[in-house]
Amino acid sequence: MSYNNPFSLLQLAIQSLLRDDNLTISSLKDLPAELFPSLFLVAHTHRHWETLKALVQTWPFESLPLGALVPDLQPENQSFKAVMDGIDVLLKQEVPPRCKLQVLDLCNTGKSFWRM
């Protein structure tokens, strides 16, 4: 019996989380920071816009290199819109958020970040 490229534990965890967006969103505050980049990539690829929005609101890093992920940053791009909606929610909060996001990098840099 041969197994060609079995899923890693990380991939299985992310697949399981993204089966239910509400579960994912409610568990973000308890997830380790190491899961965020991979979860963001899969949510972006599979068009989980509400999850992307929530990921931005709880982002555990100072920078989000969005330009490396979405080369065509147009206002009608759904990933870009979800990220901007998440930032909008952060700006409207009266209580300081737990989010550490300081820089939204829109340049096509930071590719090594997504391979973390």
TrEMBL record:
<keyword id="KW-0677">Repeat</keyword>
<keyword id="KW-0963">Cytoplasm</keyword>
<keyword id="KW-0433">Leucine-rich repeat</keyword>
<protein>
    <submittedName>
        <fullName>PRAME family member 8-like</fullName>
    </submittedName>
</protein>
<dbReference type="InterPro" id="IPR050694">
    <property type="entry name" value="LRRC14/PRAME"/>
</dbReference>
